[in-house]
Trehalose 6-phosphate phosphatase
Amino acid sequence: MLKDIPSPVDEQLPRIRSAVREANNILLCLDFDGTLAPIVDDPAKATPTDAVVDALEDLSSNPTIRTAVVSGRSLTDVRSRVDSPNLFAGNHGLEIQRNGSISVHPIAQKRATLVDTVCSQLAKTFEPVPHCWVENKRLTGSVHFRLASTHRLETIKNVAKSVIKRIGQGLLEHSYGKRVIEISPRIPWGKGNAVELLELSAPTDSLVVYLGDDTTDESAFEVVEPDGIGIRVGGPSTSWASARVRSPAAVASFLHWIGTAGPPHATETPAKLEETLSQRSA
Ligand SMILES: O=P(O)(O)OC[C@H]1O[C@H](O[C@H]2O[C@H](CO)[C@@H](O)[C@H](O)[C@H]2O)[C@H](O)[C@@H](O)[C@@H]1O
C-alpha cells in the first residue's frame, strides 16, 4: 500500500459497510484533539462536542464495540475530558490503560526526568515570548505556539530544536503537530504500537477502525490498514488512511452510524444507513 489522498468516507461506504457488517466485533480507536474535540486556541478548553459525547455513550452500551482513545495528551488529562471509552492510550501511546491497569513504556519512564529538564528549560527560554508556552506531560512535552506571531515561528522552532538536542543528548527527539512541537523520548514507539497493544484487549476477530487528524496518527493508520479502516479527519492530504471525514462533527455522525450499522444491527438496510450518514454529516 502507498500513502495516498484518502477518499471521502461517503465514497468508501460500500467497503466500510461490508467490513462492519461482516465483523463480529469492532475495536474503535479515536484520537482526541481535532477528532473528538475541535481544535481550540487554549488546549485546557478542548472538549468533545455534545454529539460526540452522545455517540460515545450510545456505543458504551454496545457489547460488540470496544472504544479506545489514543491521544498525545497525558492519560490523566485525556481521561478527564472523555471517560466513556473502554481503553485509553496517552502520551502518543507511551502509557496505556487497559483491563484496569496502567502500563508505561519502560524507556519513556526512565527518560521522564530528562523530559522534565527540557520542559523547564524551554519554559524559561520562552517566558518572554508572547503566546509561546510549554505543556509538560511527564513522558512527553509540547511547545505550543498557536497564537504566537508568524514572524517568530522559525525562531521558536529553531530554539526549541536546539534545546531538545543539547539537553536531550540524543535521548529525546522533536516532531511537529498542529501548531505544536512535540518532545518525546527517541524510541521506536508510537500510536501504531499502542493500537497493536490495545488489540490484545479486544476479541481476536475484531475489525479495527481508527480515526485521527494529525501526523502522529499516521503510524496507527499504517498498522490498521488495509485489513481495518483508517479514517483521517481533515482535508485532502496524503495519508495511510483510506477514507476521510471533514471535522469532529462528521466524526460524531460516523460514530452514530457505526453504532447502528455494527454487528448487532447488520440487518439495517444500506440505503437507510447511507441516508442517515449523509444527513448527519451534511
Ligand atoms: O493526539 P491528540 O489527542 O490529537 O493530541 C495532540 C496534541 O493535542 C493538543 O494540542 C493540540 O490541540 C490544542 C487544543 O485544540 C491546540 O490548541 C494545539 O495547537 C494543538 O497542537 C495537546 O495540547 C497536546 O498535548 C497534544 O499532544
User: Anything to note?
Assistant: The first helix runs from residue 13 to 22. The two ends are 31 Å apart (CA to CA).
